[in-house]
Amino acid sequence: MAVPFVYDPLAQALTRMQNLLAAEQAITGNGATGVTGQQSYSAAGRSAVRAQLAEIHKEIARLEKRIAQLQARAARGGMRVRGAVPL
């Protein structure tokens, strides 16, 4: 039997935050290996950028705010609806 899909924005935001923190750790090399990750490289006259650390930091800051909002909403008992007209 298929499990019904339940939209949970807080769980999705927390998962995204974990992924971003793992990406940041991979780039900066602050892991158990102690190897510093590269953000860009060049070979045979071509260059490529693997990751933008500044963009990852911006997204982490944005997600921290969003997670705080979602946690506050959950503490209030959910989303409030105002001015809705029942059908």
Would you kindly provide a written description of the structure presented here, covering whatever features stand out?
The structure is a single chain. The protein is 51% helix and 9% strand. With 87 residues, it is mainly alpha-helical. Strand 1 and strand 2 (46-49) form a beta hairpin. The two termini are 32 Å apart. The model has no long low-confidence stretch (mean pLDDT 80). It has helices at residues 9-28, 53-76, and strands at residues 40-43, 46-49.
In a few lines, what is going on in this structure?
The protein is mainly α and 87 residues long. It contains 2 helices and 2 strands. β1 and β2 (46-49) form a beta hairpin.
What can be said about the biggest beta sheet?
A: 2 strands, antiparallel
Number of strands: 2
Strand proportion: 5-15%
**Helical segment tally?**
2
Tags for this entry?
about 90 residues, about 50% helix, two-stranded antiparallel sheet, 2 helices, mainly alpha, single chain
Tell me the layout of helices and strands.
Blueprint: H1 9-28, E1 40-43, E2 46-49, H2 53-76
Antiparallel strand pairs: 1-2
